[in-house]
Amino acid sequence: MMSISVLSLCGSVEGTIVVNALPTISADLGGSDLYIWIPNAFFLASITALPLYAQLSNIFGRRIVLLAAVALFTIGCILCGASSSITMLIIARAVQGLGSGGVDTLCETVILDLVPLRERGKYISFVSIGTTLGYTAGPFLGGLIIVKLGWPWIFYLSAILSGISFIMFFCFLKVKHQRGQGLKAKMMRIDFGGNLIFIGAVVAVLLALTWAGPVYKWNDTRIITPLVLGLLGLCAYIAFEWTPRLAPEPSFPRAIVSNRTSAAVLAMTLVNSITMYGTFYFLPVYFQGVLAKSPLGSGIALAPVSALVVPFAVASGILLSKIGKYRPIHALGWACTLLTVGLCSTLNHKSSAAAWAIFEVIGAIGLGALSISLLPAIQAPLPESLTAASAGSYSFARGFGAVWGVTIPSAVFNNAVKGKANFITDPTLMSRLANGQAYQLATKAFLDSIPSADSALRNQIISIFEHAIHQVFYVLVAFAGLGLLLVLVEKEIVLRTENNTEFGLEESTNAD
């Protein structure tokens, strides 16, 4: 259990820790026009591998596939820390992301195999301590490590932890898996066609989202074409998977979304990820671009949510196991999330520390409640045979939402700044902020670069950043409202108290 928590921490923290490190890494390695690929290569690689990992774990067993994912993640971490150019770092982040995708979905799947559905919330809450702590504490850890050790140690520390986890899994993880089939028969079961369509579609969508804004305008054909083709590709993937003649053993079975509860909660997962990432990417923008805090100071300012999200998550997991009902927990989580983003839309340069600290506490309640209760609700109407596939679908919705949760708010922020840039009296700064660089420039270092004698110009820019952040949170209010409405769609289904699965712990008499 400890190894799984540590691995979940490593995987999730690598998705957020570079938030504060991006300016430093970009300045050190150069290639500022490629900076966006440092986080996005990780997300792209981790998301595209999810359905394949879920299916491989059913065919070859959880243990060997999880060990391969951990090894890949560890190698990626080492390569990231050793990178001497922006291109090498981007490639290494992709390797790291490939491993993280497997770590993300298989850590949860192993736990799901071991305990009945009703008890899973309690166990997942302890495992998700690593995940939720990584999402919220990543920016703080990134700022601290940069100051104390230098940015390569962001990756080296993860490599050390994941390496220890690999050894512990290798020695102690003994779980059942299907035996008797040869390698050729197992390879024939892999959904190669569906996974190839899925990978191509997701890559096209994420390329469009990565290029939109920093590289090309949203209405450019080089954005519209891959975006449309990618979305059509996802539709083709679904059609392929749901045609038994083409995919006799699909990586995305139709049964996962054939009931309204699983479908609604998968949509909730996507919306929650968008809202969560948008909030935790743009609170640091507020702290640095409006309050002029350093990256480390920004991380410290996130301490309330970082400290409280874990106990709230554990409490939600225990409550779910005790009452066996997930709809009240979803309603509470979305209500707190909606209140949080609504309150954050009022933040300005005069807001007190007490105000934004209280907002973060409310947000921690919402995040803790939703992070634990969504997956059990997805699986409530489904048979145990779909445990890995449903966990993979959940991880995909969460990861895909993370990309949209960065892209949509960034586009809103840049466009809002562009709309007000003509009020800036300095033509050079006006040009930089109006040309899609506002998100990168919303830092204390940028504000400090403005001559101290020109306080009026500094105040103009802070005011524009403040306005743009308000627009971001208005959009997040709409997403949080949608999440709350989806609670009305799902049904309350009794959570199973027995666990009938072909996987699980291997009996000692059958141990290898």
From TrEMBL:
Q: Which domain of life is it from?
A: Eukaryota
Specify the Major facilitator superfamily (MFS) profile domain's residue ranges.
1-495
- A Pfam family found in this protein is MFS_1
Cited InterPro entries? MFS, MFS_dom, MFS_trans_sf
Cellular compartments annotated: Membrane
The record's principal subcellular location, in a coarse class, is: membrane
Q: Does the keyword Metal-binding apply?
A: no
Q: Which UniProt keywords apply?
A: Glycoprotein, Membrane, Transmembrane, Transmembrane helix, Transport
Give me the segments passing through the membrane.
34-53, 65-92, 98-116, 123-147, 153-172, 192-211, 223-242, 263-287, 299-319, 354-375, 472-489
Which segments of the protein form a coiled coil according to its record?
Answer: none
Recorded GO molecular functions are: transmembrane transporter activity
Its record classes its membrane topology as: Multi-pass membrane protein
Q: Name one GO cellular component term.
A: plasma membrane
Q: Is Transferase among this UniProt entry's keywords?
A: no
By its UniProt entry, which Gene3D superfamilies does this protein fall under?
MFS general substrate transporter like domains (1.20.1250.20), Multidrug resistance protein D (1.20.1720.10)
Q: PANTHER family given for it?
A: MAJOR FACILITATOR SUPERFAMILY, MAJOR FACILITATOR SUPERFAMILY (MFS) PROFILE DOMAIN-CONTAINING PROTEIN
Q: What is this protein called?
A: Major facilitator superfamily (MFS) profile domain-containing protein
Q: Which organism is it from?
A: Corymbia citriodora subsp. variegata
